[in-house]
Amino acid sequence: MEDQGGFRRWPLYLIHAVLAFVVLLPLAFVGVSSFRPLEDIFKYISPVSWRTFVPAPMDLTVGAYVDLFTERGFGRVLFNTFYTSALEVAGALLIGSLAAYAFAFYEFKGKRLLFAVVLVAFMIPFEVTAIPLYELVQRLGWIDSYAGIVVPGLANGLVIFLYRQFFLDMPKSLHEAARIDGASSAGIYLRIIMPLCKPVTLSAGLMVFVHQWESFMWPLLATRSKAYKVIQVALSDFTTEFGTYWNELFAASIIAMIIPVVAILPLQRFFVMGMTSSGLKE
Question: Pfam families from the entry (predicted)?
Answer without folding.
Answer: BPD_transp_1 (PF00528)
